[in-house]
Specification:
Active site: 164 (proton acceptor)
Keywords: Methyltransferase, RNA-binding, rRNA processing, S-adenosyl-L-methionine, Transferase
Protein name: Ribosomal RNA large subunit methyltransferase J
Strand order of the largest sheet: 5-4-1-6-7-9-8-10
Mean pLDDT: 96
Helix content: 25-40%
Structural class: alpha/beta
Bound molecules: S-adenosylmethionine
Strand content: 15-25%
Order of helices and strands: HEEHHHEHEHEHEHEHEEHE
CATH superfamily: Vaccinia Virus protein VP39
InterPro entries: RlmJ (IPR007473), SAM-dependent_MTases_sf (IPR029063)
CATH topology: Rossmann fold
EC number: 2.1.1.266
Length: 283
């Protein structure tokens, strides 16, 4: 039984880091004319109403996208991301927030494609309702950890996979590693972007995850982390990271510039930290 619902967390600081990084990656793919495929192993529902009771209960988006949206003119590199948000909001009021599959759908070109996986019975229905009308999109009601390697190799050579589980279960960390390992065996040129939370010391598995991914990366592994609070002792997510396997050329410098601005706008008191670093250097 899956209990995690992303609507509680849509648009929070972790979503902003994830979706801003995703947008940079998609723009890089679009620099070449050849088609590519976007894969999302844990898609969620695709679009979230920030006024509904789940989002209102936590108010997390207020400290994430709502804070950033007013500074959007400072981010020319994220034009596509902000246009995707504007597409669902008729004025300056932020009511709807697009999830990763919808941001990708709006950024992709006519000859690109999307393969989206989601296991939750309600979320898959939301995903179908929100994205099902687009013929570039394939939607799969299945376990994304198995589904990602299962769908590979693709008919197109170029592609980007986002792996974004809820980490509701501790086993999710090992499941990510297994899924990436099997996927790389079938598709070692793909770009893999793994999101992970940074948690209180006792619950944090981010270092373990990175050490496992380090051993799998065929070419390189780049990590971008942003926290907005100091690490708590017992409970809570103070930040998150994106681990990118086969990171494209110059993504590191772009992410460095991006994260220093994000940190300034999302954490003006500088309670947290940001860093961009190679775990496996490009050869
Ligand atoms: C963090 S949310 C995804 C958010 C989305 N990627 C975005 O950025 O908008 C994680 C999603 O994974 C789904 N999920 C949980 N376990 C799964 C599994 N084994 N396979 C596929 N989806 C799963 C949950 O229902 C939830 O919708």
């Amino acid at each position: 039984m899956l209990s995690y619902r992303h609507s509680f967390h849509a648009g929070n600081h972790a979503d902003v880091l994830k979706h801003a990084t995703l947008s940079l990656l998609l723009e890089k793919f679009k620099q070449k004319a050849k088609p590519f495929c976007y894969l999302d192993s844990h898609s969620g529902g695709g679009l979230y109403d920030l006024h509904d009771e789940t989002a209102q209960k936590t108010g997390e988006y207020i400290h994430g996208i709502q804070k950033l949206y007013q500074h959007r003119q400072d981010y020319p590199e994220l034009t596509g991301y902000f246009e995707a948000i504007a597409h669902h909001n008729s004025d300056d009021q932020l009511r709807y927030y697009p999830g990763s599959p919808e941001i990708a759908r709006l950024l992709l070109r006519d000859h690109d494609s999307l393969q989206l996986m989601e296991l939750h019975n309600t979320e898959i229905e939301n995903l179908r309702n929100n994205l099902g009308g687009d013929e570039r999109v394939g939607i799969h009601h299945r376990n994304g950890f198995e589904g990602l390697p299962g769908i590979l190799p693709l008919p197109v050579k170029r592609g980007l996979a986002l792996i974004d589980p809820s980490y509701e279960l501790k086993q999710d960390y090992a499941a990510v590693v297994k899924s990436v390992k099997q996927s790389i065996k079938r598709w070692n040129t793909g770009v893999y972007a793994v999101w992970y939370p940074m948690l209180a010391a006792e619950r944090d598995h981010s270092q373990w995850l990175l050490s496992q991914l380090e051993a799998l990366a065929p070419k390189n592994l780049l990590v971008a982390e942003l926290s907005v609070e100091p690490q708590a002792q017992d409970f809570g997510m103070h930040g998150s990271g994106m681990a990118i396997i086969n990171a494209p050329y110059q993504l590191d410098t772009q992410l460095q510039a991006l994260l220093s601005k994000l940190h300034q706008h999302l954490d003006p008191q500088q309670n947290g930290e940001q860093s961009v670093r190679w775990i496996v250097q490009p050869g």
